[in-house]
Design goal:
Number of strands: 7
Structural class: alpha/beta
Strand content: 15-25%
Oligomer: single chain
Low-confidence stretches: none
CATH class: Alpha Beta
Helix content: 40-55%
């Protein structure tokens, strides 16, 4: 799909992978809506790229619908959805004190990363399928952000790995479900990327993480995620698959 003049929604778009993706699509001529719980940061980025900022909690249907309405009024119905919103967290199943991990800690991460992403997809997909198809028969493209933790979850990542693994498992059935409407679904599973979370780590820790990547021996760049997202939208044959974007990294147990 040619994004020139198309309406693009990026969740978690105010920082990290989402922000760079929003910038790249804007440079390609798309009309970008930056959705984020951090409205102040979303406004700053939207002003930078000439888009629209919408405060949005992806787990709250009313919040999503309000954001979609604002984006639709400004840019028209969504043709591309890039799901970057998510949270992290690690906690051992049984702590040093012998206490089990609180169920709320598991539920919170799964609710945002898996349920929230699905909530966003179901609402935007309904908007996509109602649109006229392009000359290629396409009505929309949905990109999901998973993680290599879906495959290589480390100690303490039970909740995070489960949430990201759920997104991997969603990919093919979603693509099959929406194929009749000409809507494609793809998932990207990034490895270790230079995101705001890793920026906060000491330089020596960053270097240690980078050294674990076979090639290139550095942390991934947000621009590389954005480049792949743009290619997925451009390439009509990419559908129903998960792409590991990790430099051949396989996470160790710890």
């Amino acid at each position: 799909m040619d994004v020139q003049g198309k309406s693009v929604i990026v969740t978690g778009g105010a920082s990290g992978l989402g922000a760079e993706t929003a910038r790249r699509f804007a440079r390609a001529g798309a009309k970008v809506a930056v959705l984020d719980v951090n409205l102040e940061a979303a406004i700053a980025l939207a002003d930078e790229i000439g888009g629209i900022a919408c405060g949005c909690d992806i787990t709250d249907t009313a919040s999503v619908q309000q954001a979609m309405h604002a984006a639709r009024e400004r840019h028209g119905p969504a043709r591309v959805l890039v799901n970057c919103a998510g949270i992290g967290g690690a906690k051992r199943l049984v702590g040093r004190d012998g206490a089990p991990m609180p169920l709320d800690d598991f539920s919170r991460i799964v609710n945002v990363n898996l349920v929230g992403t699905f909530n966003m997809i179901r609402l935007v997909a309904a908007e996509m399928v109602a649109q006229e198809a392009t000359e290629d028969g396409e009505r929309g493209v949905i990109i999901i952000t998973s993680s290599v933790a879906a495959y290589d979850g480390q100690v303490g990542q039970e909740a995070y790995a489960a949430s990201k693994g759920g997104l991997v498992s969603l990919t093919l059935p979603l693509a099959r479900d929406l194929a009749q409407f000409g809507v494609r679904v793809m998932t990207v599973a990034p490895g270790l990327f230079m995101t705001p979370l890793l920026f906060k780590l000491p330089e020596e820790v960053q270097q240690s993480l980078a050294a674990s990547i076979p090639f290139p021996k550095r942390l991934g760049k947000a621009e590389e995620f954005a480049q792949l997202a743009e290619h997925i939208v451009d390439n009509l044959s990419l559908n129903g698959e998960v792409i590991r974007l990790d430099g051949a990294l396989r996470l160790p147990p710890r």
